[in-house]
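To whoever is covering the structure queue this week,

Two jobs came back overnight. Logging them here so there's a record in the thread.

Job A:
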Amino acid sequence: MSNQTRLALINMLSDGHFHSGEILGEMLGITRSAVAKHIKILQSWGLDLYRVQGKGYCLSHPIELLNRDIILAACQCPHLDVIPVIDSTNQYLMDRIGQMQKGSVCLAEYQEAGRGRRGRQWISPFGSNLYLSMYWRLDEGIAAAMGLSLVVGIAVAEALTEFGAQGVQVKWPNDLFVEDKKLAGILIEMTGQSGDAAHLVIGLGLNVFMSQYEGKDIDQAWTNLQSCCAVEIQRNKLISHLIQKLSDVLTEYERVGLNGFVNRWNALDKYLNRPVTLLMGDKKITGIARGINHTGALLLETAQGITPFVGGEISVRGQNATVN
């Protein structure tokens, strides 16, 4: 019930104008002191809210809240759950594997336990970004999912470029960057037995409007879509475009495999022909990144020649120089 009140309060404040605590309390059927307590919780959700004596409460900028009907009207999606406050959109779908159609999507405004790769926390301020998870089934089995994070990265980068973003690149194996600053991350979780279909939950966290205040706890350089987009961003329109693009590209992947995406990856690869260091546990290997092969392996050129590297524990750290 408390979240219902808080969500109603956000809806009232979403226009970015001042609203007095007294009027907000009257509309919600609660006291002014209760409004103040809810405001503190909303601030803990990452909302940049402030109060001015005699004027009331105001968001630092208006918020376009997620609207299920608008999204579904602009894309083909067999099932869409929009849950404003959730622990994790990925976990929500993982808990429902076997009950969903391929292409089903879960969206949230705020994740209380958003997660990234290798168990890292994903900072998820309310209403500023995009938290999307899609369920997909590969009848060919787990082996067919090799390199899927690369295909999803291509789909998202191409979708954002089509939407009006400029300079979006992919970082092996699962991130999107603009000018060496992280824009989005992809987390794919999978279940399935050998010889059976693979069940995948594809999670996307995309910084859309996140401010410096909201992202103050992020320990790496990051950017948001607003800073690199040539058009006004409407979140519901953006989400519809991403859902459709993901569905189309995943269907194409089933038909042509990763081999059909190698050139598309290399065209977007932020580290192509650049010196990089691969970190594998305590081991470091330095060389020149030469794109990917048909298995999704990173090709690294060292003094010994070009060697493919795979595995979830490999990370890439770019260096400043560029090699042609």
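Job B:
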Amino acid sequence: MNNSMMDLVLSSENMHKAWKQVKRNGGSPGIDGMTIDTFPDYLRKRWNKIKQALLLGYYVPAPVLRVEIPKKSGGWSQTSLLLAHATVGKRMLGIPTVQDRVIQQAISQVLNPIFDPEFSEYSYGFRPGRSAHGAVRQVNTYVKSGYKYAVDLDLEKFFDTVNHDILMNLVARKIKDKTVLKLIGRYLRAGIRDREGNTIPTSIGTPQGGPLSPLLSNILLDQFDRELERRNLRFARYADDAIILVSRLCDGKTILSEITMFLDRKLKLVVNHKKSKVAKVAECNFLGFTFKGKKIRWTESSFQEFHYQLKYLTRRSWGVSMEYRFQKLNQYIRGWMNYYGISQYYSPVQNIDDWLRRRIRMCYWKQWRYPRTKVRKLMELGVPRDFAIMTGASSKSYWHLSKTLQANAGMSNKWLEKQGLINIKAQWCKAQGYS
């Protein structure tokens, strides 16, 4: 089968499936400016020549377009989220052309069934049927079993430091089709084009952003997983985020030292000593979560980011309709709760729900603007005339008035729900599996 692998990659069925996946993922154009929408017409005219170049081994991928994107705090960076105002630095993303994304996706679809079945059961990133939640729950099972300390391992700029020779040697152990191997090597060395038009050679690294990079990263880090399994260690890994659970602090320090040496010598990967540590599990952050007692919790920084984004989306100065505000707000809350809702930490949920409704009442109050409009709106919502006038004519701040009895009676929780405001508590209960 390996001898005709390029035929499998370029089969009509596989290419069509690859295109559907790339189209579903969307994304920005690469260096050629080609969009998802304009690509099909372009491909129909040129596919025969492109296919021939791929089959004969002289296809040359285009450099990826380098862009800086905000780096999320915690594991939420692995999902598609709405906003990025509260961030902890920047990370580089390489955007291939749409054409190269389709070809990479097609390669990945053929290679994945060959490599994935032999990956570690404790590897959760970029794998079918697996997720960050699985990794977090795996760690929680260790915590429940009595493992109190963690080796919190951070690989320094992993995607930028992948050694091509080591990686290609690992790929070649299973893939014998030289045309496919040559093409993968060319993708690794395709180069990076910055916004100024300069092309930077890539002698190491695999750019984040291409459909092939997740699989290649797992192929390389599978060697790391095997070493941890050989040592009979309790661990979970999601992409380049890994955590090892131990019973004693001294064991953790020994393991960190030995694993650092293994990664350096065998895989040419560098451990970030400033961010890596051995500590109590409750003091560690894994994919945006921590563990208090035997329960999963979102980290404080993750919740602060949630609070910040809600405040940003309910700012008074945002000149949009309430319908549009609710649309963006609900989209953000659903996305956040779909990820962080597995946290077994209810305490702040009710408070932030109440706070959000007050913020929305403040937005309505600002939108109504004039005293006569405020009075009329409150009366339409059932507030007695005298009370409506007393509140509507007040010169106190929007925030102060949003908490008054009249504002809460008129813009009740049920009324806000009818307008389209999502209930955070209900979303958390849903994520927890409560009816």
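Note for Job B: Confidence is low (pLDDT under 50) at residues 73-88.

Please reply-all if you pick these up so we don't duplicate work.
Q.
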